Amino acid sequence: MKKYFTQKPIVYISAAILFCFPLSKSVAQDKTETAKMNAFVNGLMKKMTVDEKIGQLNLVTGGMAITGSVTNNGIGDGVKKGSIGGIFGLYGTESVRKMQEAAVKGSRLHIPLIFGLDVIHGHRTIFPIPLGMSATWDLGIIEHAAHIAAKEATAEGLNWVFSPMVDIARDARWGRISEGSGEDPYLGGKVAAAMVRGYQGTSLKNADAVMACVKHFALYGAAEAGREYNTVDMSKVAMYNYYLPPYKAALDAGAGSFMSSFNVVDGVPATTNKWLLTDLLRKQWGFKGFVVSDYTSLNETVDHGMGNLQTVSALALKAGLDMDMVGEGFLKTLKTSLQQGKVTQADIDLACRRVLEAKYKLGLFDNPYKSLDPQREKTEIMTDANRKSARVTAEHSFVLLKNANQILPLKKSGGSIALVGPLADNKRDMLGTWVIGGEWEKSISVIEGIKHIVGDNVKINYAKGSNITDDTAFMKRLNFGPGMVSLDKQSPADMIEDAVKAAKKSDIIVAVVGESQSMSGESSSRSDISIPESQQLMLKALAKLGKPIVIVLFNGRPLTLTWENENAAAILDVWAPGTEAGNAIAEVLFGNYNPSGKLTTTFPRSVGQIPLYYNHLNTGRPYSSGPTKFKSNYLDISNDPLYPFGYGLSYSSFSYSNLKLSKTKLKGNETLTATVTVTNNGPYTGEEVVQLYIGDPAASISRPVKELKDFKKVNLQIGEKMDVTFNITPKQLKFYNSQLKYDWEPGEFIIQVGTNSADTKAARVQWVK
Ligand code: BGC
Q: What is the mean pLDDT of residues 412-417?
């Protein structure tokens, strides 16, 4: 029997212990530190002119990485004048030092700048896209990935990252679903907190800590029709129960900053929304950090219909926005608004204070150059250890969607493989969206990874087989950077013929297909979420040969895969795995790591089913089986997803039995334990994510059919049986009712434990107050 190398599951408690120091800091210590900070900031602000105060509210982009449609000019002069509080899109110790020196030595009050960047899934060493990372269901791994990103980012002079993105998304058309943790508020909150801990470490003053910026506040993932920057319209009950929890979890983990979103929240753009930025964020939730706008989102409120630039800038300041990204609305208008009485000195002071406090918390007043050690830049970036972590994270993120006849894992010696598809010998698309510091030339392609594992022991017959897409209009839109997607010199028909020839010579076909880097991420909505047609044509030609096809699927979103599910022998979803893509894929294909990832977002059968998510309400006419007339269903397709939330196979197989509850009648604050026996019945050691869902069938508002409440990732040897226990308290039964009161209501609850959201064992309890 082949020997497996499986990483021990990371025990979440370890992270809690590691990071318990700041939590256990005494209240007295906190008070002293706050008093010291206040005294310092008060002293500084006394010396500041109105212009200098407004300058602190101005964030400009440094031009090394352009992430929006307009940019700033005259940055060097602005820094010296004190009209710039921070720069983003600039990194590298030399460039950052130049600017920091201009601020510290060249400006009147020597106030350091804060340096930010979109470090989303790694800085130089790229980890899997966040949607993939969430599919690990391994908070230790995720926290560690964020910590490595922070180390690399600080080694290049940065102290602020625009991450985590915690927007819940139920619509796979939206390209930014790739940047978040999927559709579930509980899991989303856990991942958000893990990332904040990873970035900020034990103290923001550490040389390798960056301040997190939680985005996009709020509800950005609910853009209508999945169209980027589109309107959001949502009830407060939906907001509080499903969309807001991850932002709150990130705040509770200590996130230092928030970013306002582009969309409206209850009719008012988030960036000028006082209810959102002050009443909810600060008064209800107690946030003490600062809020930055999204890229020109302040200016864009003019187009939302909020008034001219001066009006919206005053509105935003009064609403609780502290820093204006790129648009210079604050810079250009606040002084006039002050003179005209449209804002007060206190409004400006409050925002300025919050920005200065962030700099203070980061230790920049003590040492503005704290992360500008050229040595670290040489030794701490893209290290072997970092690359190894990226590989291990990627392996854990892969989701095995199908594995008929246990075709995977592949044999490491003997036989032949046709390796085909436009992503098989491709480095660029390994990284996925948002990789500003990532160098795609340094990533490992799939063919390289496979060769590292099998050398000459397996004959590899390679053919590209198709373009990523043959559609030139689509290609134009994908090419927002030079040469991202191109047409091959060969005709599509010749390419397919080459793939067929390679397949004819081989025992098995491995087709590496799916979305390229720029098909997901910001401004990358799609109305058709299937594998592009050029690649489908190749797959269909190959399928005619009757040989087994293993699809290695690249995707930044759920795709519609009904044909592939019927015709491929196996599908391994690898998202966009990052720098170590090829190595990680090969480790899994050849069985050095047994896949354990689970979907954090539902895969629909058709785009027409969207929005499709597991924690939906029941409706008054739910459809389960039988006649379909006058039920909540479609005439032409089933209601069911192709792959449900929480789904993912293993090379082994796990069975669930014997769900036992400690009680079936409970009262008040008792704890219920639910225990299930999980058995590894397959031929390999492997990890399984055991999931706990609870349903609340009768309450004062209609409640979801089930909600994820806990999960445990366990490692089981061949033949091993394990009792997995969940402790359930009334805390897990709470929800926001129609008065937005957070509480639980007595009655019946359905406790469900299983391998995914659609395959659970259930038992009922009565729980009274
Ligand atoms: C995005 C943000 C990003 C910002 C700065 C915006 O367009 O929505 O997520 O942090 O640009 O690059």
A: 97
Active site residues: 294
- pLDDT at residue 16 above 50? no
Rounded Cα distance between 126 and 120, Å, is 9
**Tens-place pLDDT, residues 127-137:** 999 999 999 99
List the residue whose alpha carbon is closest to atom 11 of ligand 1.
Answer: 295
Q: Across-strand partners of 754?
A: 691, 760
Pairwise CA distance, residues 515 & 129, whole Å: 13
| 724 within 8 A of 44, measured Cβ to Cβ | no
Q: Is the CB of 179 under 6 A from ligand 1?
A: no
Q: Residue 531: which of 582, 465, 583 has the closest Cα?
A: 465
Residue 617 pLDDT greater than 60, yes or no: yes
Pocket test for ligand 1, best of 61, 323, 480, 522 (most atoms within 8 A of CB): 522
pLDDT value, residue 67: 67
Cα of 259 to ligand 1 centre, how many Å? 9
H/E element, 76: helix 75-81
Non-local CB neighbours of 411 within 8 Å, separated by 6+ positions? 458, 590
pLDDT 10s digits, 626-659: 888 999 999 999 999 999 999 999 999 999 999 9
pLDDT at 187 (0 to 100): 98
Tokens 């996130």 sit at which residue? 255
pLDDT single digits (tens) 36-86: 999 999 999 999 999 999 999 999 998 666 667 667 778 989 999 999 999
- Count of positions (residues) in the chain: 769
Residue range 93-113: mean pLDDT, rounded: 96
What pLDDT does residue 19 have? Answer: 36
Pairing state between β 268-269 and 264-265: antiparallel
In this structure, the residue with its CA closest to atom 10 of ligand 1 is: 162
DSSP 111: P
Task: Kindly state if the Cβ of 68 falls inside 6 Å of ligand 1.
Answer: yes
Query: In the predicted model, is pLDDT for residue 23 greater than 60?
Result: no
Tell me the pLDDT tens digit for each residue of 513-542.
999 999 999 999 999 999 999 999 999 999
Protein residue closest via CA to atom 2 of ligand 1? 294
Only one residue has tokens 């008040």, namely: 668
Written as six digits, the tokens of 174 are 């939206």
SS (H, E, C) 4-49: CCCCCCCCHHHHHHHCHHHHHCCHHHHHHHHHHHHHHHHHHHHHCC
Q: Is the CB of 167 under 6 A from ligand 1?
A: no
Interval 538-547 mean pLDDT: 98
Answer yes or no: are the C-beta atoms of 141 and 147 closer than 8 Å. Answer: no
Report the 3 state secondary structure along 700-723: CCCCCCCEEEEEEEEEECCCCEEE
Q: What share of residues in the chain are helix, strand, coil (percent, to 5)? A: 35, 20, 45
Confidence grade of residue 257 (pLDDT, cut at 50, 70, 90): very high
Q: What pLDDT sits at residue 95?
A: 92
CA nearest neighbour of 304 among 343, 334, 262, 332:
262
Angle at 758 between CA 697 and CA 654, to 5 degrees: 130
* The one-letter amino acid at 443: S
Stated as kind and residue range, the H or E segment containing 508 is strand 508-514
Can you tell me the distance from the alpha carbon of 735 to that of 240, in angstroms, rounded to the nearest whole number?
A: 8
Percentage of the chain beyond pLDDT 70 is: 96
Residue 696 Cβ inside 6 Å of ligand 1? The answer reads no
Phi, psi angles (nearest 5°) of residue 43:
-60, -45
Residue 374 has pLDDT above 90, yes or no: no
Distance in angstroms (rounded) separating the CA atoms of residues 76 and 92: 17
Q: Which residue has its alpha carbon closest to ligand 1 atom 12? A: 67
| Closest among 57, 103, 58 to 81, alpha carbons compared | 103
Q: Distance (Å, rounded) from C-alpha 702 to C-alpha 487? A: 51
Q: Which two tokens stand for residue 551?
A: 């699809």
Tokens of 202: 């034990």
Pocket of ligand 1 contains residue 162 by CB under 6 Å: yes
